[in-house]
Amino acid sequence: MRKLLVAANWKMNGRLEQNRALLQSLKNNGLLELNHEVDVLIIPPACYLSQVSQELVGTQVKLGAQNICSWLQDGAFTGEMNAQMMVDLNVSHVLVGHSERRAFCAESDELVAEKTKACLVSGLVPLVCVGETLDEREQGLLQAVLSRQVLTVAKSLDEEALSKVVWAYEPVWAIGTGLTATPEQAQEVHAFIRSLLATVMGQVAADKLHILYGGSVKANNAVELFAQKDIDGGLIGGASLSASDFLGICNAAKKREQVS
Ligand SMILES: O=C(CO)COP(=O)(O)O
After folding, report:
1. Axis crossing angle, helix 142-154 with helix 109-121, rounded to the nearest 10
2. Which end of the chain is more exposed for a tag (fewer CB within 10 A), N or C?
C-alpha cells in the first residue's frame, strides 16, 4: 500500500513572521503526530527554505523546493539555484513542471525532463506536475496532453530513476479556482497516468509510484479524493497557507490510511 503524501506548495507567499506563526500552529495542532501515517512536505519560496528547515529540525516533516535550474554545475547563471544547493539546505523534494512555471516561464516538456534528471542525479525526489487546461480538456485533448507531458519525462529516464519520481496531476482549470475535479474524474486521469507509466516501466513498478492530486483541494473534498484507488495524496496550494485547513487535509489522508 502506498503511504499518502500531502505537500504544501506555498507558492509566492509568506514572510518570516507569518511563516513562523504558521509552522508553530501546525506543530501545536497535530502536524508532528501525523508522520507515521502520512508523509508531509512543506514547499516554501526558496528564500525561506533555511527558515523552514530550522523550524522543522527534529521532525519527520520533509522540505521541498519550488524550482531548480537544470544546470548541475555552479557558475555564471545569475538568479538561478542548482540541485546541489538544495541538497545543502536539507531539501528532499523539488517541484518540477508546475503549470504556473510552464505558463509564466515558458518551461517546455524537454526542460521539465532535464530538471527531473538534475534532481535525480543529485539525490532529490522530483515531484513532476502535469495537467491539462480547460481548453485542452474541452477540445478532447486530455489524453494527448498528458501523454506528451508524462512520456517526455518518463522516456528520458532509466527504470531505476523513473521509480523515484513522484507525480502530481493538477488540472490547470482547478488550480486556485475553487473548481475541483470530481473524485471520479481525478481517479480516471490518475489511472490513465499510471497506465502510461506502465507502458514504460511495467505494471508492477508503476503500481508503486505516487500520483498526487492538486487543484482546489480543501478539507471538505479531500476525504473523497483520497479515497480513490490511484490518488496517493495531495499537492495543496491555497489551503496550505492556513494551519487548520492544511491539517484538515492531512487528517483526511490519515483516514484513508486507517481504512486501508
Ligand atoms: O497549484 C496547486 C498546488 O501546486 C494547487 O493550488 P490550489 O490548491 O490553490 O488550487
Report:
1. 40
2. N
Residues of each annotated binding site for substrate: 9-11, 176, 216, 237-238
Name residue, grid cell 485547513.
Answer: 245
Tell me, what's the pLDDT at 157? 98
The finding on whether 131 has its CB within 6 A of some atom of ligand 1 is no
**The pLDDT of residue 248 is above 80:** yes
Ligand 1 centroid–CA 43 distance in Å is 12
Give the domains, in start order, of the chain with CATH numbers: 5-259 (3.20.20.70)
Mean pLDDT (whole number) for 107-127: 98
Measure 76 CA to ligand 1 centroid, in angstroms.
32
Distance (angstroms) between ligand 1 centre and the Cα of 29 equals 23
Nearest CA to ligand 1 atom 8: 237
Mean per-residue pLDDT, 14-24: 98
Over residues 150-184, the pLDDT tens digits come to: 999 999 999 999 999 999 999 999 999 988 889 99
Per-residue confidence (pLDDT) for residue 259, from 0 to 100:
54
Q: Report the residue among 5, 6, 9, 242 best suited for mutation to probe ligand 1: largest number of ligand atoms under 8 A from its CB.
A: 9
Among candidate residues 98, 107, 132, 190, the one labeled active-site is 98
The pLDDT value given to residue 256: 73
User: pLDDT exceeding 90 applies to what percent of the chain?
Assistant: 93
Query: How far, in Å, CA of 167 to CA of 150, rounded?
Result: 9
